[in-house]
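Changelog-linked ticket: NAP example.
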Amino acid sequence: MKAIQFSEYGEPDVLKMVDIEEPHPGRGQVRVAVKAAGVNALDWKLRSGIMHDFMPVSFPSGVGFEASGIVDEIGEGVSGVSVGDAVFGIGSNTMAENAILTSWAHKPEDMSFEIAAGLPVVVETATRILDQVGSKAGETLLVSGAAGGVGTAVIQFARHRGMTVIGTASEGKHDYLRKLGAIPTVYGAGLAERVRELAPQGVDAALDLAGSGIIPELIELVGDAARVLSISDFTASEYGAQFSPDAQPHPERVFAETARLYSEGSFQLHLEKTFPLTQVGEAQTLSREGHVTGKLVVSVS
Ligand SMILES: NC(=O)c1ccc[n+]([C@@H]2O[C@H](COP(=O)([O-])OP(=O)(O)OC[C@H]3O[C@@H](n4cnc5c(N)ncnc54)[C@H](OP(=O)(O)O)[C@@H]3O)[C@@H](O)[C@H]2O)c1
């Protein structure tokens, strides 16, 4: 099968389209004929080598952690899914014609394969960090970096949980945040004053998605370091805030819930751009620039 791989750290030109043996699912896994795969910042971080001390790569390495597709092989011990079913989920080396998924849900008919491919990582992350930071109806949540993939999912789940959400993004994305249900403000100097004006009652919890070095400011705003959480600032715990690195064990429940909300019309995912499999490097370059709205997706077949 055709797959995207890299055999050394470097710029996007280390990414190659190669012909390799098809993978086969192990216990509790399925294999899909991939229709589309989601792009995540982790993809370029691993490829560039900047994550080497935390997550070293074994070469040659595939690319991609999420996909949608048609189930074409089923591993031992798997029930509730058949060959031919359309699914989406989390797995490994998903930028390829076939990929293994370790957790999945059925894709609703009214959801495109591209949207489905962009959902798994962001909905897993969003629901995990909302649980970890605490999310009660009636509370106010501040989200730094709210217009990207994770932010798009966080805003919507937090609103479903009855929270008021203040989200930061550059000015041109404020309508996008409003449509998702958040109160927008810009990031950068003066953030604390702007947030105090928008939330005179105070902010109960804060999520740092962008990793822009603002943990102390968020702790000051919330008044309780335990209710500040980052997914991209490794220094968060030095200040007493939480850092959340690991996926929840059974995200398939969240995938199914997302599918239900999507079909009801109460969850959406904006795709900024869809790339062909030959342009994974271009997709990673756009992701690395750091200003994606919603998600980027690679269409495989
Ligand atoms: N630990 C985990 O489990 C986990 C899971 C998923 C993702 N992550 C990490 O979390 C980060 C966010 O992921 P993502 O998928 O949401 O990324 P993304 O889609 O690439 O996020 C891009 C967004 O970041 C915003 N942004 C850029 N600079 C900013 C700043 N200084 N302050 C506030 N917002 C800023 C941009 O808004 P503007 O265009 O308006 O600037 C853009 O909309 C990535 O670093 C990713 O690797 C970690």
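Closing comment: Example verified and attached. The longest strand covers residues 30-39. Residues 2-119+270-299 form a domain with the Quinone Oxidoreductase; Chain A, domain 1 fold (CATH 3.90.180.10).
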